[in-house]
Design a protein that fits this description.
Layout lengths: L2 H14 L3 E9 L4 E8 L11 H17 L8 E5 L10 H6 L4 E6 L9 E10 L6 E6 L4 E5 L3 E6 L7
Parallel strand pairs: 2-3
Antiparallel strand pairs: 1-2, 4-5, 4-8, 5-6, 6-7
Length: about 160
């Protein structure tokens, strides 16, 4: 089974349990791979998201599936966690769901002539496929449209001084 199909199957199983699959991060070695699965609740708000019991439940369900896979070494490590306060924005639905929230984006190159890392308020996402564009309002009031293909990483910004 290809790596993409592993991620798709994990996403399907997490979704079937009533959680939202955020991302799969692979680490470790070929002999001892580490699979980090981040999950969320579809209705989560800061401070009211995934619990430890939720992570345990999802972990147990995924372990049964992963243990049966012949292409995965017996010594794999599975880590299931919440996405944290600075939740990564990975899918289109993330950019739609978190419109109005503060975000940070890091580009594969300079973004809109402003730098490789920008922070601002997420205004949403438009376009389709290769033409998707993330809209952000910077602190100086400038509104930018950034091709999603130029964004290497994006996440929510949590301001500890406002908590």
């Amino acid at each position: 089974m290809a790596a993409d199909s592993l991620e798709q199957e994990l996403e399907r199983r997490v979704d079937a349990l009533g959680f939202e699959f955020v991302e799969l991060e692979r680490a470790g070695s070929k002999a001892r791979p580490v699979l980090r699965v981040r999950i969320d609740r579809p209705d989560s708000t800061p401070g009211h998201g995934v619990s430890v019991d939720d992570c345990i439940r999802v972990s147990r369900e995924l372990e049964a599936y992963l243990d049966a896979r012949e292409d995965l070494p017996d010594r794999y490590v599975l880590e299931v966690s919440s996405p944290g306060l600075e939740r990564p924005l990975v899918r289109r639905r993330d950019f739609e769901r978190f419109a109005g929230r503060e975000v940070a984006v890091r580009g594969t190159t300079t973004l809109a002539g402003r730098g490789r890392r920008l922070e601002g308020v997420l205004l949403g996402i438009g376009g389709e496929g290769a033409d998707e564009r993330v809209r952000i309002r910077l602190g100086d009031g400038a509104e930018l449209e950034i091709p999603r293909s130029e964004i290497a990483r994006a996440h929510l910004v949590y301001r500890w001084d406002r908590a």
